[in-house]
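Example 3.2
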Amino acid sequence: MSATAASAPLTGRVRPGPGQVDVRGPRFGAAITSVLLIAALVLGPWPGVIVLAIQTLAFAAGAVLGVSRQPYGLFFRSVVRPRIAPASEFEDAAAPRFAQGVGLAFAIAGLAGVVFSLPVLFYVAVAFALVAAGLNALFGFCLGCEMYLLGKRFFGSSRPSTGNATQTG
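Structure, written as tokens:
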């Protein structure tokens, strides 16, 4: 998590505001992503490309539709979240969505490594994606989200932050 005010998670008993996601959802997705990327690395370019293609589709869904509507987010929302404590932290959905786009870029690079018979590209791209997913899954540190926030700070933002949530109880 970032220490900046614009990205600081909202804590306490809250309901998400527009454009907010439960921070546990992307972290859950990162755990699934990590397992799939480890499998792709262990299997190697072939048949690991099949596992990587599945993960590439998940990254694409997250980048295009948002993390709440990609397969792991849907599973988290419908199966996992009802069985755990209510959410106490939310974050702006734009940062994890950007992170999915970064993951998508690395996954496409890995696929290109297989298509163009460059196994080193496959291994390096998948390993970079795994490091990022692992940091989020294990430590709650979203590398792609931090890149998004740095870019937002460096290049400015034409869109105001959606860091508004309402306190309850």
